[in-house]
Write a structure and sequence with these properties.
- By secondary structure, the protein is an all-alpha fold.
- The protein is 74% helix and 0% strand.
- It contains 3 helices and no strands.
Length: 80
């Protein structure tokens, strides 16, 4: 455990001067952030397009037809 602490403090002493070179006010997401955002935007656009296509195929009038046929076709059927 002491060896891990020593190596961690050694790493911090070597990396601390490098961290001072970065300006904290100028940190940006960069190209990787843009690519991730663009891929997510394309995925959402594709999902919305697919959802609209599937919702266009849904037949909402089916419940009215089933209600009209319900009492007439129920004669002679047993539920037991």
């Amino acid at each position: 455990m002491a060896d891990m602490s020593a190596s961690a403090s050694l790493a911090m002493t070597h990396l601390a001067p490098l961290a001072k070179e970065f300006d904290e006010n100028k940190v940006t997401p960069g190209v990787l952030g843009f690519v991730v955002f663009a891929v997510m935007a394309l995925a959402v656009w594709g999902l919305m397009k697919s959802m609209n296509r599937h919702m266009g195929r849904v037949n909402f009038a089916e419940a009215d037809e089933a209600a009209a046929e319900g009492p007439a076709s129920d004669t002679g059927k047993s539920t037991a």
